[in-house]
Amino acid sequence: MNWISNYVRPKINSLFSRREVPENLWLKCPECGTMLFHRELTNALNVCTNCDYHMAITPRERFTALFDGGLFTEVPVPPALNDPLGFKDQKRYPDRLREARKKTGEEGAMIVAEGEIARLKTICVGQNFAFMGGSMGMQVGNAIIAGVERAIALHCPLVLFSAAGGARMQEGILSLMQMPRSTVAVQMLREAGLPYVVVLTDPTTGGVTASYAMLGDVQIAEPGALICFAGPRVIEQTIRETLPEGFQRAEYLLDHGMLDRVVHRKDMRDELARLLRLLMNTTPPVYGDLPAPADAPPALPGQ
Predict the structure, then answer these.
(1) Which of 63, 123, 287, 300 has the least C-beta neighbours within 10 A?
(2) What is the pTM of this model?
(3) Do 42 and 186 sit in the same domain of this protein?
């Protein structure tokens, strides 16, 4: 028995052999190609630290970063019919729903949450693009109405984060009916004198843009978000002309008066905290674990 061959050499090889690295530790930025470590990306709220490209983020991740202490309560949404039209293309509609629910862990494309932003009770509604492209179906309409009714019951503002490719074709006319349903729900908020703020994220297109996504008292967008009814490729093919650079992106729409703000994701919480308190005509936002004293003495010079 050769102990050098049987023991020493394998030991040396094991020390210097390449260790396998899990594939999910690094993510490539689709905009600039930078390789980003997963923890660094999570801490940056899925925003590239090199080029500031805003990647997709789930509603739950967004709510955790938005609400005080990351705490929120999910508002129940009435279930929608699974297959009202018996629709089938390459797959049956129930099979597509089953795959989307397994992939995202959610029952539908929209989630409603209740919590506090800088001590102000707020209802937030978030659209999940990973769930069949965030498409607007009956569950989305039910979620918006549930959020509006809860906001009215608590007399608090409602913030909606849109991310969708438009209406859901598998629900046909029933999907298009969510446009007037959501419009009536927004009107209910207005009649109650409550703010409705919309944050448009990439992408927000189709019937979603033509209804609840453009009805906010204040329209905010994330940098670089695609916001449109028909996409730029469809428009170019129709009019047979080259569109301006950045056409239908958030910054272009801000310059042309369709948006009020373009806000970086890391600044969204502070922006909403100030804006919602202003719209609710209440005191400025309070940060920290304890509320500010009612009769605080004036600060001395140099303090």
Answers:
(1) 300
(2) 0.86
(3) no
